[in-house]
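Hey L., structure's done. Input below.
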Amino acid sequence: MQDSSCKLIVAAFTAVQVALIFLLGYTPYPDSNGYVLLAQQCLANGSPYPVTSLLSDYPFLWNVGAINSVALSLLATGSTVPLQLVYALMKGATAWLLFDLVRCLSGRRTAAIALLLYVAYPANYGEATSVLSEVPFIFFAMAATWMSVVRQWHAAAGVMLALGNWMRPFALVFIAAIIIFLKFRPRKCLPLLAGYLSVVLLIGTLSTMRTGLFLYQAKTGWMSLMQYSWDNSPASQQDTPDPMIIYNDTTLNVAQKDHRWKQMFLEWLPNHKADYVKQMPVKLAATYVSDNVNLCAFLDHKESRDYLYDELSMRTLKNQLPRLTPAQWLTLLNLFFYYLLLVGAVLSLRHFRRQTHLLSVAIIATGTLLLLLVGHGEARFHQPFMPFIIMLSAQYVAQVHEKKH
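Output:
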């Protein structure tokens, strides 16, 4: 497939992303709505997020870059649509970055297969109908990976990862994976780290000057980990207070609340090691069992639903089959496609090659391990891995094609 054909595919894919913003309307995911409310609060106070005077009112610090992006869009136009259009362009750019990255690692044929799988995958449509943080984070992470691997622009890659981390704190996974792929060479790894740390220091310093706290990313990790651990451990509920007692404590600012949750978890862990280990398979299953979330964009009457995800949940699909709505049929098709991608990714590892497989495996394995150790299970959490799962699956299709010929 020629570059011109691939560019046409990417352009068409991007155009569809833009069109869906207007055809499907806004998708009111709970997190997206939360970003909008916090952004409106920032505008009312004439301040970026987090607002200094509200540091003790916030239950936790959320995705700083994502919320400030929403605030900027609202400030400029009074609407989130301009930001959604930017996210649509980012989604299209991610498709091209995937193609060029695979072309560098595996050749043009595998790159074309990866691009076709990416644009054919139903879950890759409709994300720009909302303002969730996954689209910008994945774009910045893919841009950083492309810059470092394809162009050798390691310092610029570090900058991109810091911006991605500002949107959603998951960049350390990509830093670790890229360093592994670069064979720990200081000449390449040090500029990567320098670029990353320079932006972190800039964001943190500006925050310190404004709020008195060095805040450069979301602080939800310890709260989520402690709450999940407590909720899924019956013994914990007998000998450990509910972590939510800290949630509305207005005597603490967001950094102090985060520190308290960290302390609480470190005190909880020694007495509940078995529960902690038993929760890991459950987290793994919850992370990879489905990929239904993005299909909520195709639901009717989205704004009036009490629970947006219910109609497309695995349980509902099972109970209502075969009397499914169009959105449910699309979700079922997406699930079938998703499982094929997972199987293809696993099968590709039978012929492991460092150049073509290591990067994807390092990102998926490092990210999954991080979720098991200090995260909790949720289907959205595997989305940053999907380009690399598709990359591995494309490797398998290319392997089968080579054998046949």
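The chain has a mean pLDDT of 94. The radius of gyration is 21 Å.

-- N.
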